[in-house]
Amino acid sequence: MATKSGVDEVHILWISEGMSCDGDTVSITAATQPAIEDVVRGLIPGLPKVHLHNKVLAFELGGEPYLAAFRQAARGELGPFVLVVEGSIPNEQINGEGYWTSFGNDLETGEPITINAWLDQLAPKAWAVVAIGTCATYGGIHAMAGNPTGSMGLADYLGWNFRSRAGIPIVNVPGCPVQPDNFMETLTWLLYQAAGENPMIPLDEQLRPTWLFGKTVHEGCDRAGYYEQADFGLDYNSPKCQVKIGCWGPVVNCNVPKRGWMAGVGGCPNVGGICIGCTMPGFPDKFMPFMDQPPGSTASTGLVTAYGKLIRSLRALTNATVNEEPRWHHRRPELTTGYEP
Ligand code: SF4
Ligand code: SF4
Ligand code: SF4
Q1: Which domain holds residue 263?
Q2: Given this model, what pLDDT does residue 61 score?
C-alpha cells in the first residue's frame, strides 16, 4: 500500500542459506542504533511497518510455513520486499552430481532449490537487495584461493551493474561478521527511502555506504598516537600500536574502532585485536598470513621511526613542563602574576 510518496509496509526476506555461518544474523541481535526489535515493533518514527523473515530469528515458524513468504515473493505476489543475502554464492555450474547449498525443496520434484535459483527468482522482484557480511559482499572466507565451490559475492553473481526494482544498486555492508549497527543503520536508511523520506543511498565503487566505509581503521584507532610517535608494541599484551604484529589498519576501510562493537564498546585494535581487513574485497587472501607484519608497513614505519622517536622525546620535555603549575601560584605576601594596574 502506498503513502504520499513511498510505501507503508515492507517485507525483509533474509536468506542465509548461501555459504554462511549465520554469524551476521547473530551479530545483528547486538544492534542498538537502532535495535532490530525496535524496527520490527514499529518503534522508529517514520519507518514503514516491517515484516522480518529470518530463519534464525523466526523461532516460532519452520518448514513450509516459514518458506511461504519466499514462495509468494518468487511468484511475484508479495508486497515490496528488501532481499537480504548472507553468505557467499557458490557456483552451481561446477557442482558435479549434487548441489552446494539449498533452501527448501521444489514442491513438484522434491529436489532441493539452490540459493542460486532463489536469487534468480527474487532479486529482479526485490525493492532493494542488500548483501550482509563479507561472504555475501565479496566472497569472503569461502571464496579464498583453493576452494572447491567457486564461491563469489552477490555482485559477482548478479552483476555489478545490477539495479533493483527501485533502481538501487546492490548495497554491500561487509564485515566478518558485519558490525551490527552498520547494518541496521544501512537498513534504516533504505526503509526511510522506501517510505519516501530519504534520497538515494550513497554508495562507493565497492557498493558500500560511503558514510560508513569512507575512512580507514587507522584514522579512527585509539592507538594512532603511538604509531605517529613510532611507539610500537611487539607482543599482543602491549597497549601500543600493533602494526609490527600484524595490524593492517592503515589501509583498511572500516569504522569499527570509532564505532565500537556493542553499544560503543570494543573495536578490534582499540581492545587489542589486530585488524585483519575483514571488511575488504581482498579478504582473506591479501591479508595472509595473519599476524605477520604487513609487508607495505616496513617502509612507512621506518620513515615514522626516523622522526617519531625525536618527536616523542621532545614531547616528553614539554609534557613535564605543562605538568607543573605556573610559578605565581603561591601564598607569599606579594603578587607575582605580572599584573600591572
Ligand atoms: Fe560468517 Fe563471516 Fe561469512 Fe558472515 S561474513 S557468513 S560472519 S564467515
Ligand atoms: Fe593503526 Fe593498527 Fe596501529 Fe591502530 S594498531 S594505530 S590501526 S596500525
Ligand atoms: Fe575487520 Fe579490521 Fe574492521 Fe576489525 S577493524 S572489523 S578486523 S576490518
Answers
A1: 218-303
A2: 75
Least confident of 49-53, 219-223, 294-298, 326-330: 294-298
For ligand 2, atom 1, the nearest C-alpha belongs to: 218
The average pLDDT across 63-87 equals 96
Let me know whether 122 and 152 are in one domain: yes
Residue 320 forms part of a structural domain: no
Pocket lined around ligand 3, Cβ cut-off 6 Å: 175, 217, 252, 254, 256, 268, 275-279
pLDDT at position 62, please? 79
Residue 337 DSSP SS3: coil
CATH number of 252's domain: 4.10.480.10
CB 179 within 8 A of CB 209: no
- How far away, in angstroms, is 227 Cα from ligand 2 center? 7
Each as own residue / partner, the long-range contacts of residues 143-146 (CB below 8 Å, 24 or more positions apart, any chain) are 143/19, 143/88, 144/284, 144/285, 145/285
Nearest CA to ligand 2 atom 6: 224
Q: 194-232 pLDDT, tens per residue?
A: 999 999 999 999 999 999 999 999 999 999 999 999 999
**Domain assignment present for 121:** yes
Per cent of the chain over pLDDT 90 is 91
Contacts with 53 (C-beta within 8 Å, 6 or more apart), sequence order = 11, 12, 13, 14, 66, 69, 70
Distance 144 CA to ligand 1 centre (A): 13
Q: Which ligand is nearest to the CA of 142?
A: 1
Q: How many domains does the chain have?
A: 2
- pLDDT recorded at residue 60: 74
**Quick check: CB of 241 below 6 Å from ligand 2?**
yes
